[in-house]
């Protein structure tokens, strides 16, 4: 488990990051910290959070949600504002709004601008949905999602981009493993950074799972919710991660290479959990 968690990344928001006095006290130096850009969050809050995390010695990967960016000029300003703070990585995604507020509707359009390469960004991540995404495939299938990932895989092949897939959080290993197998069979070779929900009360976990459109693996939560004695107890991703760690150890061809935590129960609850397993920073060449 310690080996599987080594080099994990974690997601924060400006308002949650502000509650942490010093990230160096809770995270291994160099940890990749994603900064989630929720619609309505001022960009200046994002920029200042990025500056703070860079100053504290972390690798910062802010979100670029296509649907809340007005046009190429605004995208260019954001890219360069982050770069001026020492940021050279980005997570590109459609964003959590129903209708585009500008000219972009998906992450492929952001990639096609070439602005990240022009600004010297060295790593670009894209979103993955192991259990599907009804915003993209309304019928519950995965044809459109898979087509988008094939496009992004081809983009990496024809450019100098260093890319990976960062996924939505899941609760059960079997659907994730099956999805990773389907990607490999489809010729999609992008590394997978699998999303895991950090420890939280079961009620909190179910609330976030429903709001974020978690797939069939949410049954792990609903089964546990039937036991009223466990409703107020924290739910941890230990079984989910243990199963994935065992699978990747016995299947070296598996593309799942890192864990990305969504700290639904709080940042320190997640970092306390990872510390239990002695998780440290991977060597830079491996991360």
TrEMBL record:
Domain of life: Bacteria
Database matches in SUPFAM superfamilies: FAD-linked oxidoreductase
InterPro entries: FAD-linked_oxidoreductase-like
GO MF assignments: oxidoreductase activity
Gene3D superfamilies: 3.20.20.220
Keywords from the UniProt entry: Oxidoreductase
Protein name: Methylenetetrahydrofolate reductase
Organism: Oceanomicrobium pacificus
